Amino acid sequence: MKRKDFCGLMATQEQDKRRRGDESTADLYRAVRNHFECFITDVGPAHKDVTAELVQDFQLWLQRKGLRVNTVNSYLSCLRAMYNRALPFGKGRQERSPFAGLRLKREETRKRAVPVEVIKKIASLDLKKEPAKQLAADLALFTFLACGIPFVDIVHLTGENLVENGTVLEYRRQKTGVLIRMEVSAEMQMLIDRYRSAERHYLFPVLSEDMTHEQYKACLATENRYLKDISVMLDLPETLTTYSFRHAWASEAYHLHVPIGVISQALGHTSERTTRIYLKEFDVSEVAKANRQVSETIGCYLRVG
User: Fold this and answer.
1) In sequence order, what are the residues at sequence separation of 6 or more whose Cβ sits closer than 8 angstroms to the Cβ of residue 110?
2) In the chain, at which end, N or C, are there fewer CB atoms within 10 A of the end residue's CB?
3) Helix axes 52-64, 69-86, angle to 10 degrees
4) Is residue 2 scored above 60 in pLDDT?
């Protein structure tokens, strides 16, 4: 019999997200449920037992665990969403939401972009004797060269994403479904050719066709581990991650006075509401021009072969 307490309802929502293929949200739901179950040491509460006082106590509990402000906010926002979806028309729903007085103010996060000089050093590295680390470096470089494409989207690229005789890279973001189109620069083509194989489904040798979400997360962890090693090799003050190169492209584009709207479209953002309202969609050539401005200085550092 399925559990009818609130934690059971949370688990049901997590399972529903996984059935729908929304693994990232399901992972977040699982994390929130795990924390909530640790917080609730007694029998799981019913939906009606989730009160404003309980929510405030959970917030304090998360803070005392040393979680970052934005993490706590994310968990509480997720808990609220699950509460609202659990019994939308049920009798257990309270007239006043226990989250009614909750105010979530996000903390400004530290910028993760790295200077272009660091990216030049990575492009110059000779890692032939360490092919796995070379691949990690090349994937990071491809993020920068391809308008900040996220790691999850790189590893899912196939030959079908190269359209118009291979001159345009076209893909939909895994996270939002937004369509991204850009010109395939010479530097991007160099990295694609380095790893492309007719015997493999994906352009880069990271995923297998039947890979699960958990296995993908292991690949992401491996990528970040190698980037950490590269950070140590280059004696960098901060550890590189896959996000560093996405932020680096956006920062460098902004520094070169590329219009915000072009940057927004290139990154596939859906939250740039102001630019989406009054800026029409840019042609591929506009994004290509922006990308050339950002990445042209890297080409001479990439090793051939």
Assistant:
1) none
2) N
3) 150
4) no
Is the model more confident about 138 or about 7? 138
Length of the chain in residues, anyone? 305
User: Is the C-alpha dihedral spanning 235, 237, 243, 249 positive or negative?
Assistant: negative
Q: Is the pLDDT assigned to residue 259 strictly greater than 60?
A: yes
The answer to whether the beta carbons of residues 8 and 33 sit under 8 Å apart is no
Identify whether the C-beta of residue 172 lies closer than 8 Å to the C-beta of residue 150: no
Q: What is the pLDDT of residue 289?
A: 81
Give the per-residue pLDDT at 111: 55
Mean pLDDT throughout 179-206? 95
The CA–CA distances, whole Å, from 231 to 105, 240, 299 equal: 32, 6, 21
